[in-house]
Write a structure and sequence with these properties.
Blueprint lengths: L1 H35 L15 E2 L5 E7 L6 E7 L5 E5 L5 E3 L4 E2 L6 E6 L5 E11 L2 E11 L4 E4 L9 E6 L5 E6 L2 E6 L4 E4 L8 E3 L4 H7 L5 E3 L5 E8 L5 E6 L7 E6 L9 E8 L6 E2 L9 E8 L5 E8 L4 E8 L6 E7 L12 E2 L4 E6 L6 E6 L5 E3 L7 E8 L4 E6 L8 E6 L6 E3 L8 E6 L5 E8 L2 E9 L4 E7 L2 H10 L4 E8 L2 E8 L10 E6 L18 H8 L2 E5 L10 H5 L7 H17 L3 E11 L1 H12 L6 E5 L10 H8 L6 H7 L11 E7 L8 H12 L5 E5 L12 H16 L6
Parallel strand pairs: 40-41, 40-42, 42-43, 43-44, 44-45
Antiparallel strand pairs: 1-2, 2-3, 3-4, 5-6, 7-8, 8-9, 9-10, 11-12, 12-13, 13-14, 15-17, 16-17, 17-20, 18-19, 20-21, 22-23, 23-24, 24-25, 26-27, 27-28, 28-29, 30-31, 31-32, 32-33, 34-35, 35-36, 36-37, 38-39, 39-41
Helix pairs in contact: 1-4, 6-7
Length: about 750
């Protein structure tokens, strides 16, 4: 009996050892796999082609290659059954008949725009970047009846046309070129400049850098309802500070990129709105009260089918958003509505008109949560469309006929996203539409009539699943992309799970996630790398598919990877959560990051508090610096990328929204800027910045370096010549950047359990 027991024990031991060897082998294979894809996607996914919905809400547009001819064509598909109708056959897409050159052959078409009657089509091609987006290019117009295809603006510089759009009757097209607005008559093929004062400082029909970056303003003109007038923005950048980026790498002598960039507390462009006849004439400027350089005009639209303008005006501190209306040719300018906040208000992109323009929708945080409201056209009546202790995250669609409005919210878990429905003229109650059993994030590309939607679901461990759903039921009618192969591959790789946890900063509970190292032993202490953002513009702790290999690769090296959403992060946790940081950007964030990681270490003793590193990009780079300088006993090693060192160096609209001006809040600017705390540095610091960054200027890096030298602080630095804020341009850049970061971690924050 004793011999039998001994033999059994030996067998069990052998099995355990074999399993251990197999597990170790598995982890080794996983680590090798991650190393091969360290700087890319962990698995390769299939995605549904972008669906552009047609106005009827039942069909969507796609560009195909004809199976028989091998040539491009534009077709519409039924959302119901995928039946196909060719809208624009290949023969109508021939640009050069002699050479049989087709659209889509040489120059990608970035956009296809139909006239209201769908008889004419605009093609946007040969595009060039303006700042971050491809908004300049060439436009071609197709008459589907005659099959005539020709280029607009012949004689104007190549790739100079912007924002071309049909007049309501499709007889004309308006566009911007070289800061002036043109109108082209499609019958005569002649064009005329309806503004002529555009130059390097006077900008008509588009915007300067700061309006584009912070207000998402690019297209700067609108057709009136009757097609007789064009309303437009004009920006006068004279008097604004201009910034220079020096290019030392593309020629033997440097060249300079020179552009207006108003830094916090300095002079803004003067922006105004006016209107002019579509056939030319004198512009009538709207006499909107307030200094043009100390107020903002971020939104302007014609009320549907009318000649009445609906304009949003914000004061410079962005405490108020005032709505003005004005009718073309009438002296009826008046303010009808105002939203305000002691911290800041946002521009409102959720204005939808109801019941023949008798009401409009509005998003506001006036009750402490972000909700949708219904406002009468005169602004005197305001009623809740949604209500409750939760935030509306974004509007998805509205069906006035059924009285339904669809929006994204997540009342119970700030890391997730679900579709809800409410009545436009109801009692404010909301109904969950997404499948509650699918825990994670849901997004929807909904048709204009809200009868169909392309639905995407994912979470941290589930690759995107895409299907077509029918509404109002929200039932799936067919799978568009299931990515089952990618899911199987991901499951087989055997990466460490992203675990969602809670941490405390004082009495405040914060959301966080953690990825444990591959060779993890709870009995050993492992180092931590915190990936931080921390600014009001975004959040990092979201239960959604990432796809990036980087965090898992760091885990394979022997690091615990962590991210924490501090106070002020753009999470759906109410107004107080987001706006308590007003005037204090940078201070609460670093405090929460320090308290959060120490609390996590209390919960999980395997965290080595002597090996805590932190890294972040842009605002995250700023938070990295603040953490390293203000809490040197907590954060021992840091990598700050493309960071703001001094908040006075960033632009007016963003920085003043959260901090007011440096003149009005000098203590806040000093308190929140990392450069004020350089003397606190004790650990290992690595600075990375692109010299061609037009967003967060390389100046930030140089000023910080100068201060570090002044204080006798040692650090490491890599500058990427003429790389932008993303540090992605040029062959090998991303690989070099990530490898550089990896080497620094391994050298100064030793990996593995102890």
């Amino acid at each position: 009996m004793k011999n039998l027991s001994k033999s059994l024990l030996i067998l069990i031991y052998i099995l355990i050892m074999c399993n251990g060897v197999a597990f170790a082998q598995k982890k080794t294979d996983t680590a090798k796999f991650l190393q091969s894809r360290a700087y890319g996607s962990i698995v390769y996914l299939s995605y549904a082609r972008h669906i552009e919905w047609m106005p009827d809400g039942e069909h969507y547009l796609q560009v195909n290659i004809n199976d028989e001819t091998g040539k491009p064509e534009v077709a519409v598909y039924s959302a119901k059954d995928e039946s196909k109708t060719v809208l624009i056959p290949s023969r109508q897409l021939v640009v050069n008949k002699e050479n049989e050159e087709y659209f889509f052959d040489q120059k990608p078409v970035m956009d296809i725009i139909f006239s209201d009657d769908q008889e004419k089509v605009l093609f946007f091609t040969n595009t060039k970047k303006v700042w971050r987006y491809h908004t300049r290019g060439d436009y071609w117009v197709l008459n589907r009846k005659s099959s005539e295809l020709y280029q607009l603006g012949k004689g104007l510089p190549e790739s100079s046309l912007m924002f071309a759009k049909f007049s309501p009757d499709a007889s004309k097209v308006a566009y911007v070129s070289k800061n002036n607005i043109y109108v082209e008559d499609l019958a005569t093929k002649t064009y005329k400049a309806i503004t002529t004062d555009g130059n390097d400082t006077i900008v008509n029909g588009t915007f300067d850098w700061v309006y584009e970056e912070e207000f998402d303003c690019r297209d700067g003109f609108r057709w009136s309802g009757d097609g007789q007038y064009i309303a437009y923005w004009q920006s006068n950048t004279s008097g604004t500070g201009w910034f220079d980026i020096i290019n030392n790498v593309d020629s033997i002598y440097p060249t300079v990129q020179h552009f207006p960039y108003p830094k916090a507390g300095t002079t803004n462009s003067a922006v105004k709105i006016g209107y002019v006849r579509a056939d030319g004439g004198t512009t009538t400027w709207l006499p909107i009260p307030g200094d043009e350089r100390n107020n903002y005009l971020p939104r302007m639209e014609f009320i549907p089918g009318t000649n009445k303008l609906f304009i949003q005006q914000m004061d410079r501190p962005q405490h108020t958003n005032k709505v003005w209306t004005a009718t073309i040719g009438q002296q009826d300018l008046k303010t009808i509505f105002e939203d305000s906040d002691s911290a800041w208000v946002e521009t409102n992109d959720n204005v939808k008109w109801l019941k023949g323009n008798k009401f409009f929708t509005w998003m506001s945080e006036r009750d402490g949560w972000r909700h949708l409201y219904r406002v009468s056209a005169d602004g005197k009546q305001m009623s809740c469309i949604t209500k409750g202790d939760f935030d509306v995250i974004r509007l998805v669609g509205m069906n006035e006929k059924s009285g339904d409005i669809y929006f994204i919210a997540s009342p119970d878990n700030a890391t997730q996203r679900y579709l809800y429905r409410a009545k436009l003229f109801g009692n404010g109650m909301c109904e969950l539409v997404s499948d509650a059993n699918q825990k994670g994030q849901h997004s929807y590309n909904m048709s204009p009539t809200c009868t169909w939607a392309v639905h995407t679901f994912s979470n941290a461990h589930t690759v995107p699943q895409i299907d077509m759903q029918s509404f109002p039921s929200g039932k799936s009618v067919r799978t568009l992309v299931d990515n089952s192969k990618a899911q199987k591959e991901f499951d087989e790789i055997g990466v460490s799970a992203k675990e969602f946890v809670k941490v405390k900063s004082g009495d405040l509970m914060l959301d966080a996630w953690m990825i444990k190292p591959f060779n993890f032993y709870a009995s050993k202490k492992s180092p931590v790398i915190i990936d931080v953002y921390g600014e009001p513009a975004n959040s990092t702790v979201q239960d959604v598919w990432s796809g990036s290999t980087w965090h898992q690769y760091l885990a394979s090296l022997g690091y615990i990877v962590v991210s924490i959403d501090n106070r002020g992060a753009a999470a759906p946790r109410g107004r107080e959560w987001r706006k308590c940081i007003y005037g204090e950007v940078g201070t609460f964030a670093s405090e929460d990051q320090a308290n959060g990681i120490l609390d996590l270490a209390k919960q999980y003793p395997f965290i080595d508090t002597e090996r805590i590193g932190i890294t972040g990009w842009s605002g995250g780079g700023s938070q990295t610096l603040n953490c390293m300088f203000r809490y040197p006993k907590v954060f021992k090693t840091g990598i700050a990328v493309a960071f703001v060192a001094d908040q006075r160096l960033y632009d007016t609209i963003y920085q003043e929204r959260y901090m007011n001006t440096p003149q009005n809040n000098p203590e806040g600017y000093a308190k929140g800027s990392p450069i004020s705390y350089v003397d606190g540095l004790e650990g290992n610091l690595f600075l990375i910045h692109g010299t061609g960054d037009d967003n967060v200027h390389y100046q930030n890096c140089e000023m910080l370096v100068n201060k570090l030298i002044e204080e006798g602080k040692m650090f490491y630095q890599v500058s990427y010549p003429m790389r932008s804020h993303s540090i992605s341009e040029g062959e090998g850049t991303t690989r070099h950047l990530r490898k550089t970061m990896e080497n620094f971690w391994l050298k100064f924050l030793p990996a593995g359990g102890r």
